[in-house]
Amino acid sequence: MSDTLRPSDSLKNVRYEIRGRLARRAHEMERMGHEIISLNIGNPGLFGFRTPETMRLAMIENLRESEAYCHQKGIFPAREAVVMQQQARGVQGVSAEEVFIGNGVSELIDLVLRALLNDGDEVLVPSPDYPLWSAAVTLNRGKAVHYPCLPENGFLPDPEVVESLITRRTRAIVIINPNNPTGAVYPRAILERLARIAEKHGLVVFADEIYDQILYDDAQFVPMATLVHDTLCATMSGLSKVYRACGYRVGWVAFSGRLRAAADYLGALELLSSLRLCSNVPAQWAVQTALGGYQSIRELTAPGGRLYESRAVITEAVAASPFLRLQAPRGALYAFIGIDTDVLPVDDQSFALDLLEQKHVLVAPGVSFNVPYRNHFRVTNLPDAATLRTVFQRMGELLAAYASGARESPASARVVEASTRFK
Questions:
Q1: Which residues pair with 215 in a beta bridge?
Q2: CA–CA dist 234, 140 (Å, integer)
Q3: How far, in Å, are 208, 257, 289, 291, 298 from residue 84 at the CA level?
Q4: Which residues pair with 205 in a beta bridge?
Q5: Angle at the Cα of 184 from the Cα atoms of 105 and 343, rounded to 5 degrees
Q6: What angle do CA 50, 240, 156 make, to 5 degrees?
Q7: Per the count of CB atoms within 10 A, which of 89, 180, 260, 267 is most buried?
Q8: 143's torsion region: left (phi>0), alpha (psi -120 to 50) or beta?
Q9: What residues are paired with 378 via a beta bridge?
Q10: Peptide bond before 187: cis, by omega within 30 degrees of 0?
Q11: How many helical (H) and strand (E) elements, i.e. helices and strands, does the chain have?
Q12: For the packed helices 409-419 and 348-359, what is the interaxial angle rounded to 10 degrees?
């Protein structure tokens, strides 16, 4: 009998490098006393952002009502608040019965796929993607088929290419808008075409809209559920990003479109929700206050607001660099930056490793987001402007060292050696 305890084979093709070996190495360096600027995760609370006080008060005032399990779909006031938001946006036919509250959108991604997929079923997922979608498809016995959202096309999908990837095994399409990691905000014409393709082929539309109100300049957000009518649409959002409440772990999915034809599927989803009893109750009391109250995110994303100004620092720094390229993000909390390999041949993982070891800055390499190219990396614009100026100064120093032939490759080797201790 082997002394080695092996993990499940179901994890062989599951990756989540945003919290992978680079992040583990950064944590190790922090334990050694180094100060690391971590730009790998969009976690507002770590950068001084606060959840609105009214949401905290709503939780405190309802603590007595939070000690028992609630309904498996969530408390009624929270679900009804989601319904009212959907109705205000022009979504028809949604009631509280079609809303499920989860422990963040992350849990709901797993549940909606588990209720849908059989062995070998395919799900269309954008590339680049938020990697949890690809991982969750794999964990639930499906196959993630990535449709390209190319840098030269502004990271927007080509509906004709998307449709060409559909097979008899395709069950659903994932649309992340505003997009993580690129910050692209999809125009109505593209979303309408994707809606018609999904209806034509009977695909479930999973609309990941967690960044729905984080928009810059003249960007316009179009809710996918307002366009999808003749198939099932699942709109997913939560408190984490817009309301800076990641630790509350409150997300929701609201179903619209062909609800009657999806009755068995929704029943299966309720069964799965029942098996985990319910989601975190205290934080659900913040939903009604959040959605119905003052939307402070607009101050942060308007000119002069902290998110707007931090984004400006990123775009200006990239524009001033002879080595970096960027499609300016129009939404969300990230920039997906490219290294011009015609000027400086370097791959994303080596760059990220060296940036961490030599400059104490942690970014997420592009390969983390299921792209075939190897010259991009993601940063978040959550730090203040001064911190981001420091970051890009350090990046510039490293890239200039590469260009002069002074790249310190042993740093990457040390990271690889250190990372093996965490496998």
A1: 331
A2: 18
A3: 18, 16, 12, 9, 20
A4: 173, 233
A5: 125
A6: 120
A7: 180
A8: beta
A9: 336, 364
A10: no
A11: 14, 13
A12: 90
Q: Return the CATH number of 9-49+299-422, one of 3.90.1150.10, 3.30.70.2690, 3.40.50.720, 3.40.50.2300.
A: 3.90.1150.10
Strand 251-257, strand 99-102: pairing: antiparallel
State whether residue 216 is helix, strand or coil: coil
Q: Write out the CATH class of domain 65-292.
A: alpha beta
Distance (Å, rounded) from C-alpha 34 to C-alpha 26?
9
Q: Tell me how far the alpha carbon of residue 32 is from its chain's centroid.
A: 30
Phi/psi of residue 150, nearest 5 degrees: -80, 145
- Closest by alpha carbon to 163, among 127, 134, 200? 200
Q: Which two tokens stand for residue 331?
A: 């939404």
Residue 173 main-chain phi, psi, to 5 deg: -130, 135
pLDDT one digit per residue (tens) for the chain, 423 residues: 567 888 888 877 777 777 778 889 999 999 999 999 999 999 999 999 999 999 999 999 999 999 999 999 999 999 999 999 999 999 988 999 999 999 999 999 999 999 999 999 999 999 999 999 999 999 999 999 999 999 999 999 999 999 999 999 999 999 999 999 999 999 999 999 999 999 999 999 999 999 999 999 999 999 999 999 999 999 999 999 999 999 999 999 999 999 999 999 999 999 999 999 999 999 999 999 999 999 999 999 999 999 999 999 999 999 999 999 999 999 999 999 999 999 999 999 999 999 999 999 999 999 999 999 999 999 999 999 999 999 999 999 999 999 988 655 434 444 444 333 333
Compute CA 168 distance to the chain's CA centroid, rounded to the nearest angstrom.
Answer: 28
Domain-by-domain residue ranges, the chain?
9-49+299-422, 65-292
Secondary structure (3-state) at 401: helix
pTM: 0.93
Q: How far apart are CA 153 and CA 86, in angstroms?
A: 30
Please name which of 6, 355, 18, 373 lies closest in space to residue 181, comparing C-alpha atoms.
18
**400 backbone dihedrals φ, ψ, rounded to 5°:** -65, -35
